[in-house]
Design a protein that fits this description.
Rossmann fold; 13 strands; six-stranded mixed β-sheet; five-stranded parallel β-sheet; disordered C terminus; alpha/beta; Penicillin-binding protein 1b fold
Amino acid sequence: MSLSGIFSLWNQSAEFKEIIKIIKGKLINKILLSGLKDSARSFFIAALASKKEIKKSYLIIADSQENALKIYQDLSTFLNKPQSEEENIFLFPSFDVLPYEDISSDPQIIQQRINILKHLSAIDQNIKRIILIADIKALLPKLASPRKFKKTSWKFKIGDVLKKGDFLEILLDQNYQSVEIVEEKGEFSSRGGIIDFFPVTSENPLRLELFGDQIESIRYFNLNTQRSILKLTDYTLLPSREFITDGSSNYNVCVNSLGVIFFGEKISSGFG
């Protein structure tokens, strides 16, 4: 039997039909489920996502990183997401350090989380359904609200008027460190009309060249050779950190814009 055939079996379930009715009627935005085990959980979400009449995105909360990863892998398979398609299934990773530990988390994790927040902050403009999978630990840190995240993201393009001092101030406000030569993420250097900076969300550093107060060139460059890799016409500088003080918490980002589904017996008893 094909996956579409398996999905159609859910339509024969009275409970599933009731859930669809609730979601379509926008009666609630949180659904508490129990009794679904292993891949049956992912089949259920895949069946929901396959309903074209429901243009809703989902936050799926698992009780562990292992279960979150398993759901992510299942959904990527069940929904048959081709590699060339724009990503719309995300695994929100947990930090690899405990809160209040005086060490930095893996930069790769920070990069993944901020890039996902970028997608969530644009969810109203995104025509694709977003499915976000996370464990409880991943959602504990406070995050910027979508409004604040977009407000502190800054897009610039070739030809824009930009004063060097203003851009350096933006980098300092985002906790970038001034150095002689950029070597790591979160650093910037300035010489003449050239500004090098290495965003935490980028695989390579960027070089911004100014002619007077006008942007003349934007390009990625190689750290080792200092040679250009790719020329850009524009770039959006995202916040370098997740928490931006504005009185918002993580639930402003996730719950208000996503339908929430909790999985796992521990979660069910904790939130029941």
